[in-house]
Design a protein that fits this description.
single chain, mainly beta, Immunoglobulin-like, four-stranded antiparallel sheet, four-stranded mixed sheet, 4% helix, rod-shaped
């Protein structure tokens, strides 16, 4: 007896069904393998058994449903708990001079995690950030393809940036976003605070020796430095260890 499959309703896709056993003494088995997404959907088959030239026997109709797991996959989810990532809040001060950074791995999806390496089954991903208020002047998202990571970099040089921002990270499966809404979003907070002076550079005026009755004597000094350079207008005052300055001695410190 010879066994074969009949009735596949789209032969152009290719032969993906095989009868594994060709013996009258054994029960035939069907194995199904689909490598093309064109097979997605429901397919009906019948198995025909033929005994020489004496006749044929048809099986009942066999229904095979091919499901694409990427249509229901979950981004930022997998069998291993460590694969689930959370973006933490970020903060900095104006004119700090350096970037505050945060790095995270490429986001896996559950289908790719089950059937592959977490990234390889459901196509490309897109990563975007948006903020309220607009965060584009202070926060950037840069890909580090060498390490399969993304870098969030925060920096501000303008007092007008001082604010609290609600930022949304959006990750999409490009091939399945429009049809199946495969998207992941996460909110986090970014705070830009006023410039914070870490140190004030010293600039001693030096000692003065003055003889009574002599012409006015002056000692000049340059403005004390701010680290970082916050640009604040300094205020200078004088103090005498015995109380008020003696009559005739004045302290004049215009903005410099």
């Amino acid at each position: 007896m010879v066994w074969s499959q009949l009735g596949r309703n789209n032969a152009a896709i290719g032969d993906a069904v095989e009868v594994a056993v060709y013996s009258i003494d054994a029960t035939p088995e069907l194995t199904f393998s689909a490598s093309s997404l064109d097979w997605e959907g429901t397919w009906n088959f019948k198995v025909q058994g033929q005994v020489g030239e004496y006749g044929t026997v048809l099986s009942n109709e066999i229904t095979v449903t091919v499901v694409n797991p990427c249509r229901s996959t979950v981004i930022n989810n997998g069998d291993v708990a460590v694969n689930v990532q959370t973006i933490i809040d970020m903060s900095t001060t104006v004119k700090l001079g350096t970037f505050e950074t945060q790095q995270f791995d490429y986001y896996i999806d559950s289908a790719s995690d089950t059937y592959g390496n977490g990234l390889d089954k459901c196509g490309a991903r897109s990563y975007e950030i948006s903020g309220v208020p607009d965060v584009s002047n202070v926060l950037t998202l840069e890909e580090n393809a060498t390490d399969n990571k993304w870098d969030l970099k925060l920096k501000s040089d303008l007092n007008s940036d001082i604010d609290t921002y609600t930022v949304t990270l959006t990750v999409k499966l490009v091939d399945y976003f429009a049809s199946d809404n495969r998207v992941y979003t996460q909110e986090f907070t970014v705070v830009i605070a006023a410039c914070d002076i870490i140190t004030v550079g010293s600039n001693n005026a030096g000692n003065i020796e003055y003889l009574i009755g002599q012409p006015v004597d002056t000692v000049s000094f340059t403005q004390y430095t701010q680290i970082p350079q916050c640009g604040y207008t300094p205020t200078y005052t004088s103090e005498c260890n015995s109380g008020n300055l003696p009559a005739g001695i004045t302290f004049d410190a215009p903005n410099r």
